[in-house]
């Protein structure tokens, strides 16, 4: 019975995946924990929802309001990129493939109210540079250029694919209404998905976006090559060369550097506050942290406020992951020892029986022979009586 329970414990630790959607919500206070980690934070800036996931197993290490729907803002761009990376995998295009900017693309790039970078009509932009523009400066025009290219300029069809992929990945509380996270109406008529509400935000949960990050990192780990630098350059060596600084301040060289952080995407808007889906790797262990609803849009320093919470969740997560790994290893060792003892006992019993087998054969043969002799003598005696 002891070995049975040890085996159950081992299986639970080793094979917990993203199906562990019923993980208990934490009862600890993230503000207190963040202060204990050495950061000065205000209660008002606490994330409205947060989660820490083991990127190798999908196991939930921390969760608070994990299934409460919120606006992901520009984190939405990661689903557009996921669909792009699937097309790259299929060979339908390459990183060197180009998208020629239209007059509409140029007009979108000049909309001040949404995050963008300068795009010039008639210029061919390589896919690799559009990916960087999407994840680092969070360019809405670059995202829409990718979405339009993949859908032959049918915005609604592309959002259909986003929602279908979300369902396929197990993002059960997600609804996309646009490709980039900025409501379609903010594009001043240059981007208008016909079958979707142009005034509606996207909706998701921290659990769902941790799930998206989990699948992205599993299937396309090279995404971190686009997100692991604080400063990036696009269109290098051309008249359109540009440089951007990441909003992920937990990256090395950022305002709140944390060891091992190498991605993924931030997002913010008036309805969302400040969000981030991040990943970090230390040793052979990779974690995912998603926070949503940090601070308030009226205080633009919210882009910095989120990172002490992110770093604290990583710090606690790596400690917890190590603890669980050691427990799993210990349980494995105990189960292995018990199996070895059982095998040794079985081997001894088999060996003992093997040594006794000749004795059993001799004794058995003797008994059979004795019985046969007695039967013979009885029959002989009976025959003699009949002759008389």
From TrEMBL:
Residues 1-23 form the signal peptide. The keyword Transmembrane helix applies. The chain crosses the membrane at residues 356-379. The keyword Kinase does not apply. Keywords: Carboxypeptidase, Cell shape, Cell wall biogenesis/degradation, Hydrolase, Membrane, Peptidoglycan synthesis, Protease, Signal, Transmembrane, Transmembrane helix. Residues 47-294 form the Peptidase S11 D-alanyl-D-alanine carboxypeptidase A N-terminal domain. GO terms for molecular function: carboxypeptidase activity. Belongs to the peptidase S11 family. This is D-alanyl-D-alanine carboxypeptidase. It comes from Streptococcus pacificus. The lineage of its organism: Bacteria, Bacillati, Bacillota, Bacilli, Lactobacillales.
